[in-house]
Amino acid sequence: MAEDYLVEETATGSRLTWTVAMEVAHLAAPTAIVLKPVLGLAVGSMVSGLRKKLATR
User: Which of 15, 20, 24, 54 qualifies as a FRET site for 9, CA 20 to 30 Å off?
Assistant: First the structure.
């Protein structure tokens, strides 16, 4: 699993680009099929929380 973020200045403030990636080993592929939607919800929840927090600043 890896993540990267980039904060760029814009005319009205700043922009955050957050990239998350995961590579699954061949033997873990069946597990990944089940975990993919769960991880997607977790990351989506983190993004939503971050948006709310940044909106108050």
Answer: 20
How much is the pTM?
0.58
CA-wise closest residue to 22 among 43, 7, 6, 8: 43
Residue 17 host element (H or E) = strand 13-21
Q: Convert 23-53 to b/e letters by CB count within 10 Å (16 or more is b).
A: eeeeeeeeeeeeeeeeeeeeeeeeeeeeeee
Q: Could you tell me which of 40, 45, 35, 34 has the C-alpha nearest to residue 20?
A: 40
Query: Which tens digits make up the pLDDT trace of 6-34?
Result: 999 999 988 989 898 878 787 778 888 88
